[in-house]
Amino acid sequence: MNAEKRMSKDAYRSKNVGEYESKISVAGKEYVKVEDLRYGTNPHQTAALYKPADHVAPIADIEVLKSGKSGLSQTNYEDISLAVNICKFFETPTSVCMKHVNPSGVAVGQNGEPAVRVYQRSRDCDPQAAFGSVVVLNTTVDEDTAREIMGSFVEVVVAPEVTDAALDILRDHETFRRNKNIRVLRCGDFTRLPRFVGDNTEGFETLTRLVDGSLIMADPLLSNLRSADEIVPASGTDKEGRTVTAECRADERQKADLLAAWYISLNVRSNGVVLLKNGATLAVGTGQQDRVGAVEEAVRKYERKYQGEESMAGAVMASDGFFPFPDALDTAAEKGVSAVIAPAGALRDTQVIEHANQKGVAFCHAPERVFSHH
Questions:
Q1: Domains plus CATH for the chain?
Q2: What DSSP state is assigned to residue 142?
Q3: If you average pLDDT over every residue of the chain, what do you get?
Q4: How far apart are CA 260 and CA 341, in angstroms?
Q5: Cα–Cα separations (whole angstroms), residue 278 to 109, 167, 275, 310, 312
Q6: In the chain, which end has fewer C-beta atoms inside a 10 angstrom radius, N or C?
Q7: How confident is the model at residue 5 (pLDDT cuts 50, 70, 90)?
Q8: Is the pLDDT assigned to residue 56 strictly greater than 90?
Q9: What are the start-end ranges of the E strands in the chain?
Q10: Among 275, 235, 229, 232, which residue's Cα sits nearest to residue 252?
Q11: How far is the C-alpha of 164 from the C-alpha of 182, rounded, in Å?
């Protein structure tokens, strides 16, 4: 039976490992092959990693400190990429647990808390989903953090630095048997990546290939929102020319949380929402066809899966698209959400703002929509 499975898998492969060209040209740009991957999205799909020939790539140029499972797959790299795309926005220690190209939990360091605590808060948002995740940190993995990581099953750890003592723990599969094949990688400089509209994006265009072989080239998804000071109260004008403005004002803590939630939402599959408090996600609602469904999913996740210390009271919420109806905001407010950020653009913007005023929610408009269909 095992032989039959292996033959079946090989029969479906369109290429054998090593058959991908060492250099390719796409849209006039040259790419060089970094490595053949363990597999593509699924084990019967082959894949290879390429990098632009003319610039340093913080992900493709990663250094392997510990290998396992015959290397990395396409899915591993995609998770690493999106987690790095969150970490790049934060200067304080940040940890991202990424699973199936959506963050299961993110935490941004508060008041100088150590890296181990930041990692714990990212994991405890949804420990069930974090099981078998890719963990990316923008800070050094020390001994305490390594030991905490090895306490549950993790596929890959990525960080700019790993101490020698931490690496000894991450290699200790005799003690931590289920993490025998954990991969540990030292990444490049996240600050080389564009973050905001207006940054240099040459070489960072996204390429999507359609099933008929066609290609879509697009600008990378960046943000216009550079700081918490730029978060402003929502305002809208209805068909009668009546202007309605959000009455409740977000305080400094809420603004900091709204900014963090917004940056995370750029990497959540739409329709998506992020519930966050004191720098750490409480839940992430992902990939829903309707806005209220994304909010309901996030609330259910918090109620059933969250194992951190925060209550929902006083949490903030980011939505990657506007609210076409007040129902999604009502659902969040009823659970204790106190501030919300979302783009403008709905026909019923004024109704949504009025509902926020009635509920005592500080409703803020973002300067852009950040749908992600990855």
A1: 58-192 (3.40.140.20), 229-366 (3.40.140.20)
A2: -
A3: 94
A4: 11
A5: 9, 30, 11, 8, 11
A6: N
A7: very low
A8: no
A9: 23-26, 29-36, 48-52, 63-66, 94-99, 102-108, 133-137, 154-159, 183-186, 206-209, 215-218, 232-233, 235-237, 243-245, 273-277, 280-285, 316-319, 339-343, 362-366
A10: 229
A11: 16
User: Is the Cβ–Cβ distance between 58 and 191 less than 8 Å?
Assistant: no
Main-chain phi, psi angles of 361, to 5 degrees:
-100, 135
Q: What is the DSSP letter of 148?
A: H
Instruction: Check if the beta carbon of residue 362 is closer than 8 Å to that of residue 258.
Output: no
- In one letter, which amino acid is 211? V
Total residue count of the chain as it appears in this document:
374
**Is the pLDDT confidence value at 216 over 70?**
yes
- As to burial, measured by CB atoms within 10 angstroms (0-12 exposed, 13-18 middle, 19+ buried), residue 232 is middle
Please provide residue 184's backbone torsions phi and psi, each rounded to the nearest 5 degrees: -120, 125
Q: How confident is the model at residue 16 (pLDDT cuts 50, 70, 90)?
A: confident
pLDDT classification of 17: cutoffs 50, 70, 90: low
Amino acid at 313: A
Question: Would you say residue 198 has pLDDT above 50?
Answer: yes
Output the six-digit token pair for 372. Answer: 């992600």
Span 256-284, mean pLDDT? 98
Residues 195 and 223: beta-carbon distance below 8 Å: yes
| Cβ atoms 96, 80 nearer than 8 A | no
Kindly state the helix (H) or strand (E) to which residue 302 belongs, with its residue range: helix 291-305
69-83 exposure pattern, b = at least 16 Cβ within 10 A, e = fewer:
eeebbbbbbbbbbbb
Instruction: Give CA separation, 364 vs 106, 249, 250, 351, 353, in Å.
Output: 22, 9, 8, 14, 9
- The predicted structure's pLDDT at residue 12: 53
pTM: 0.94
Q: What is the dihedral of CA 332, 260, 373, 22, to 10 degrees?
A: -160
